[in-house]
Every structure is written in structure tokens, then in C-alpha cells.
Specification:
By secondary structure, the protein is mostly helical. The protein contains four helices and two strands. About 55% of the residues lie in helices and about 5% in strands. Helix 3 packs across helix 4. The longest helix has 25 residues.
Length: about 130
């Protein structure tokens, strides 16, 4: 579920060490929720007039798990790992990424990767299979 907005026209964006100036990236409900709850207005209107519900966020998280993360797991299983550093990065991305989604679904909070590590340590003690 991606949300289109006039706010996004011709805005630059950054992803995976690349800076883009086209407007092909549409901000998702996670981004809107985070901006609505934490952004500090430095110019213009103080209210970000975007209606985001917890159901929008949860639906997006489930879609993300069943598309991006499912494909990521399938591709990762087929990939050759060439060194410990590469393996560490893959584990970090996978464990902390999916844990962030779990936290958002079950707590409503959007957390950092660092906080995802602490969340996982406290929540998943003894867990062998996750249910979303």
C-alpha cells in the first residue's frame, strides 16, 4: 500500500547509497506515520495533514513481509556468501529488518535497528517460529 501525495512531486530521495532526483519513489504508510508523529516543522504549516491509521500501517507491514521479505529470503538462500563480513551484513539486515516489522505490527511503534536488537532479545526468548 503506497500513498500518493502532491507533497512528493519532484522531491529527491536517497536509497542504498544512491541519491535520486526523480519522483518515482512513493512514500509508504510507515514513513507517513513516522513523519506525522516525529517531524518538526521548520517552515510552513505545523500539521502534516495526512490520515494514517494503525490498520494502514499493519496492512503495509504484512504486504512488505509477504512480498519484499519473502523474495529476500528466497534470493538470499540461493546466494553465495564470500566472507564473514558479507554473512554478518545479511544476518543483520534480515534479523533486524523483520524484527522492526514485528515490533510495528504488535506495538504500533516504529523502531530503529538498534532498538530492534533489544526488542528481539526481550521478546523472542525461546521462540523457534514467528507468527505474523
Amino acid at each position: 500500500m503506497l500513498i500518493k501525495s502532491e507533497l512528493l512531486n519532484d522531491n529527491p530521495w536517497y536509497l542504498e547509497n544512491n541519491f535520486y532526483t526523480n519522483n518515482s519513489y512513493i512514500v509508504n504508510p510507515i514513513t507517513w506515520k513516522y513523519l506525522k508523529e516525529t517531524a518538526i516543522c521548520v517552515y510552513g504549516l505545523n500539521d502534516l495533514n495526512v490520515k494514517i491509521t494503525n490498520n494502514d500501517v499493519i496492512k503495509y507491514c504484512h504486504e512488505n513481509i509477504n512480498t519484499y521479505w519473502k523474495n529476500w529470503v528466497n534470493q538470499t538462500e540461493k546466494s553465495a556468501v564470500h566472507n564473514l563480513s558479507e554473512l554478518t551484513a545479511i544476518i543483520e539486515w534480515g534479523v533486524l529488518g523483520i524484527t522492526r516489522l514485528h515490533a510495528t505490527i504488535f506495538t504500533g511503534k516504529i523502531i530503529s535497528k538498534l532498538d530492534a536488537g533489544f526488542y528481539a532479545k526481550n521478546i523472542f526468548v525461546g521462540v523457534t517460529q514467528l507468527k505474523f
